[in-house]
Amino acid sequence: MSEATTRCGFVAVIGAPNVGKSTLVNRLVGTKVSIVSPKVQTTRARIVGIGISGDTQIAFLDLPGVFAPKRRLDRAMVDAAWRGAVDADETLLLVDATRGIDANTDAILTGLAERKIEPVLAINKIDAVKRTALLGLAADLNARATFAATFMVSATTGDGTEALMQHLIGRMPEGPWLYPADQPTDMSERLLAAEVTREQVFLQLHQELPYSVAVETEKWEDFDDGSARIEQVIYVQRDGQRKIVIGEKGARIKAIGAGARKELAAILDRKIHLFLHVKVAEDWSEKRDFYRAWGLEYDV
Ligand code: GDP
Ligand code: MG
User: Fold this and answer.
1) Is 91 helix (H, G, I), strand (E, B) or coil?
2) Residues with CB under 6 A from ligand 1
3) How far apart are CA 67 and CA 65, in angstroms?
4) Per-residue model confidence as pLDDT tens digits over 262-285
5) Protein residue with its CA nearest to atom 19 in ligand 1
6) Looking at ligand 1, which residue's alpha carbon is closest to its atom 25?
7) What is the 3-state secondary structure (H, E, C) of 8-41?
């Protein structure tokens, strides 16, 4: 396609933790690029999901939820979210219909106004609330801030998401595509594979443990029959956590491996042999290399 007829741009997806940003990005991209769990702060880095419709390519920045940061990793995540919003062509603000304007969303609205960003508003999870409550929330939000447009969607069912996509497409600037047509994310397969294993940790382990875990793909071997052998390390911060991740007679690590292997095989459409090791690395969240690998700023 010639440059004159194509459009391409960045849409930053911003919102409180757990409003469904990653679920929506996966839906708009059409394949899973970002991991999802019922727990807050599942997304740690700035994940790029690339959606295409007609002659338009949109790179969605699935950003970590914005919240009051305490630890270094939290600060880096909030920093990544605001940088994403400032750099993007458009910002999509996602609000959870079941939670309304909570303290997090309120702080984001203030932050957007300070940065003179006028976002497109999408109220998500409309499958989970009554229609009357929805209209009240839309009115409250529009009284609180000015939006380029308001959409009501369900990232889970897909309700309303195509109209939102078409609206965003219309807002993208003319220009050449920045990514190959067959590339749904800018993440390497090694990082994506690490994320898929971390998703299982978020789904299968509880309390503070998921937040103490980092996953790294250490080895990746491709075979002639199309399969791949992947070796990963799950880093925890204390020996007690290592025992929990491994589980009774290795049952938990086996279940995490089985879940991740199944998910990866589906995403990559090939047979996967996955080998997991659990190691204690007390200070992984203070190491510069970790931040660099995920495109996060260390000193914020
Ligand atoms: P994020 O933290 O904003 O990226 O949120 P996630 O995409 O990880 O989703 C958080 C939780 O909300 C998960 O349990 C999702 O399954 C759930 N969720 C996301 N979108 C919807 C939706 O449209 N409807 C309902 N009922 N749940 C949703
Ligand atoms: Mg997320």
Assistant:
1) strand
2) 15, 17-23, 36-38, 42-43, 65, 124-125, 127-128, 154-156
3) 6
4) 999 999 999 999 999 999 998 898
5) 20
6) 125
7) EEEEEEEECCCCCHHHHHHHHHCCCCCCCCCCCC
